[in-house]
Design goal:
Blueprint (H helix, E strand, L loop, with lengths): L1 H42 L2 H24 L8 H29 L5 H28 L10 H8 L5
Helix pairs in contact: 1-2, 3-4
């Protein structure tokens, strides 16, 4: 029990970030699915609907992660962060699509269940792990020594963004 408690205290910040990341991702997922279905019903254009819903969900995810999950990390400018966030989100999507393609075309698992497991269980899990790691590493890196005030300074320079 003491070992678990010691591990929690050492990893507590990471665990809290993971939990917040999951909540933000869940909200973005609901935005994506909800907006996709709303637009699909209104327009009957699946690719356009998915593109719009994905961009909206990515924007919601960026805002939630920037202002809540990774709020204590350094800031490098909203344009740079959002562009990098969007690119890394696309890499996560490619990971999920690769899992689906391997399962469906290379392994021959062509049922709807198999496609959903490959894309929405395996692919989503791997893509989400990549996103969490890459966002922490490149989009929202840790504050460097002596730069604790940088995030607050930037927030004052960009009113209304956060």
């Amino acid at each position: 029990m003491r070992a678990l408690l010691a591990a929690y205290y050492r990893l507590g910040h990471l665990i809290r970030e993971l939990m917040k990341f999951g909540v933000v991702g869940g909200v973005a997922f609901v935005v994506d699915i909800g907006l996709f279905n709303l637009l699909l019903h209104a327009t009957d254009k699946p690719l356009t609907s998915k593109t719009i819903s994905m961009v909206a969900a990515t924007t919601v995810s960026y805002a939630g992660n920037r202002t809540w999950t990774f709020r204590r990390r350094s800031r490098s400018g909203i344009r740079r962060e959002y562009a990098l966030f969007f690119v890394l989100n696309a890499v996560g999507l490619i990971i999920a699509l690769t899992c689906l393609a391997i399962s469906h075309y290379a392994l021959g698992f062509t049922s709807t269940l198999a496609d959903n497991i490959a894309a929405n269980v395996v692919g989503l899990a791997l893509g989400t792990a990549f996103r969490f790691w890459s966002y922490r590493r490149w989009v929202f890196p840790e504050l460097r020594e002596g730069s604790e005030g940088r995030a607050d300074d930037e927030r004052e320079q960009q009113p209304g963004l956060l």
